[in-house]
Write a structure and sequence with these properties.
Number of helices: 10
Strand content: 15-25%
Largest sheet: 6 strands, parallel
Structural class: alpha/beta
Radius of gyration: 19 Å
Bound molecules: guanine
Order of helices and strands: EHEHEHEHHHEHEHEEEEHEH
């Protein structure tokens, strides 16, 4: 019988742990951790994500600041706000919610953020430090997956780990983290993508599959070795007229078809998803306490 990885329960537990730590810090007279978020425009998905981030800050005992701009904000205005947040000693970390309108160069915006406040872990300094195993902010999804592996005590040393997808935000960092000399880590990693040959055969060799393709139901029973662990990162909206919202979230794994083969499996929703916001909260606490980059 597979153990279903309950990301919702783990996320709730971590938020509780963070809130306790914040209460302890404040009782010692330390400053309240402070996360700021910049939101441009009114994209429905981004509005929801940012509202949830602000809500989580409250649950963790953090101060939060939301800075909003309309779609017609100029790149210069945005860069100026980033400069102010970089210099604001009260702000421990901040994020610029992506995607941004097309007239703004996203990479330029990411690189304008002080890496010491880049709690999203998107700045090339943090990505580079992560890839060579230095203290850094690890981005939310890979960090959430590592935490699930850790909390479920899933054995990764010497395991064959197949990562499906090579995106900058999941596949590539996940490959770096699973191969690093650490626990979790020490895995033999194969990254598969749209040009990979014999993908089914490669997956069948895997002790751990991390699926981050955005292709609903891609991983089927004929690709899974009995006893494997599967982490499903897919979150594709598929139309569903029986839902009030008109859609449901579908993972990259045919959960019903493969569950009986697995030792551990993470569902969608309720697996990796709930972990991403708590990863941001953990990074904010690390920023506030100077655990990654010493405070100036
Ligand atoms: N858009 C979708 N996911 C994210 C995230 O983790 N951080 C930011 N800044 N924008 C996003």
């Amino acid at each position: 019988m597979a153990t279903i990885i309950d990301g919702k329960a783990v996320a709730a537990q971590i938020k509780k742990e963070i809130a306790e730590e914040v209460a302890r810090l404040m009782a010692e007279g330390q400053k309240q951790p402070h996360l700021a978020a910049i939101l441009v425009g009114h994209d429905g998905g981004s509005e929801t994500y940012v509202a949830n981030k602000v809500k989580s800050c409250g649950e963790c005992g953090f101060k939060s600041t939301l800075i909003r701009f309309e779609d017609d904000v100029t790149e210069a205005q945005l860069l100026d706000t980033i400069r102010q947040l970089n210099e604001d000693d009260d702000v421990d970390g901040f994020i610029v919610q992506l995607p941004l309108p097309r007239h703004i160069d996203e990479q330029k915006v990411i690189e304008a953020i002080d890496p010491r406040k880049d709690v999203d872990g998107f700045h090339p300094v943090n990505v580079g430090r992560m890839s060579i195993g230095l203290p850094c902010f690890v981005s939310a999804t890979p960090s959430g997956i590592l935490e699930l592996l850790k909390r479920y005590d899933i054995h990764t040393s010497g395991a064959r780990c197949v990562i499906l997808g090579r995106s900058n935000i999941v596949g590539k960092p996940m490959a770096m983290l699973m191969m690093q000399k650490a626990t979790p880590g020490d895995s033999t990693v194969t990254v598969c993508h749209s040009h990979t040959k014999d993908i089914k055969e490669i997956c069948r060799e895997a002790d751990i599959i991390i699926a981050a393709l955005g292709s609903p139901g891609f991983v089927t029973a004929d690709m899974v070795k009995p006893g494997a662990t599967i982490i499903d990162v897919g979150t594709t909206r598929v139309p569903d007229s029986s839902r009030k919202s008109g859609f449901r979230l579908s993972g990259d794994v045919d959960f019903a078809g493969v569950e009986h083969l697995c030792r551990y499996i993470s569902p969608v929703p309720g697996g990796v998803g709930p972990m991403t916001i708590v990863s941001l909260m953990r990074n904010t606490l690390l920023a506030a306490t100077g655990k990654v980059y010493p405070k100036k």
